[in-house]
């Protein structure tokens, strides 16, 4: 599924950067605007986003598959409650193919910079294969695109294989090897149980123990898949049920005392799998559930309880040719090092390469605390839309529903330019400030700010600039009811 021709200098109504869920959804839902004049730039050799990149053992979704899919492209093919990586990637490829996106896809075509041309009221995209321009740009690079590897002194001196879970080296045979795993995030929770039976020893370096809840993953029977495919309404009912169940759980995130119920279940889940009191103490969080991402697994705790696993709660000082040295000076000899340390989430990729009309980049305007109107558009950056932008992430349900809501807003913004015969649209400073105030007000008192932990949800200023701190319905209502007075439109050349 690749297309790699030399682009030359082309102009498009709509340019999309990234081909994961957000990019594919944007190309489909905004189709009536671009009248065929659309391009999807992808730096990799095929579409898929995180579901193309993350091929580590055990990779799967943490949201039920019936909800982790587009509402306009339901699937009756899911074989498990929680879909595996290969299934999700195949789903995205199928949706893209069915909606005729492949001719629009430019693979192995990284975007190096995006600069506003005021004279022509368009964006100039310098790509790996030439220069293109576009009236509107959707930045769909995703918040989980660039792996984060901690700065460990002398890491380059280690003689064995070193890789991040999002860049899994399948050429490395871990059988009977001594392996160090650094990090206990959502990816590590999934791959650790898969490699534990293979390795001779596994040393897990844990900075903060996560709350882990039962996954309760079950196969979806052929009978249910057939009924979903053939009986009208079954798919919608199943989706609505899961949506409601997850939306109800939001109450505990907004009123942290209610998290005591989940914490009791989490401690019971740990106690059932881990009998050793010392190990159990290491794995018991000391902060309120939900403050960090809640993880789900039925086999993570049992894997850590095995005799070939050693959980270290001390930091790493440096690497040597043969392993890692902790901050107590103890050497841990290993044959391979795997990082399960997540991604750079402080800002979207490319934000330091997007230059607006005033000559400063998006990153420079944001500083340490990103803000965007509806988490999607930014004052001073016309015709630019951020998928999975500030305050679009979720802690309790499927972000795909937020993407679809964002696309409703983008659709309305693009319609406004057409209706007014305008060249550009952007939010006003006042509207963006008001949206940020609403987010801060909704965040106040929630588990994300009062749960007693430090998480990637909060930016360096201590502000929540990553999560939408309310329900899907509230955001969707805002996205559907487009506020014209919150926006500025200009004709070509920048005239109001």
From TrEMBL:
Gene3D superfamilies: FAD/NAD(P)-binding domain. It comes from the Bacteria. Coiled coil: none annotated. Keywords: Monooxygenase, Oxidoreductase. Residues 13-230 form the FAD/NAD(P)-binding domain. GO terms for molecular function: monooxygenase activity. Pfam families: Pyr_redox_2 (PF07992). The keyword Oxidoreductase applies. This is Baeyer-Villiger monooxygenase.
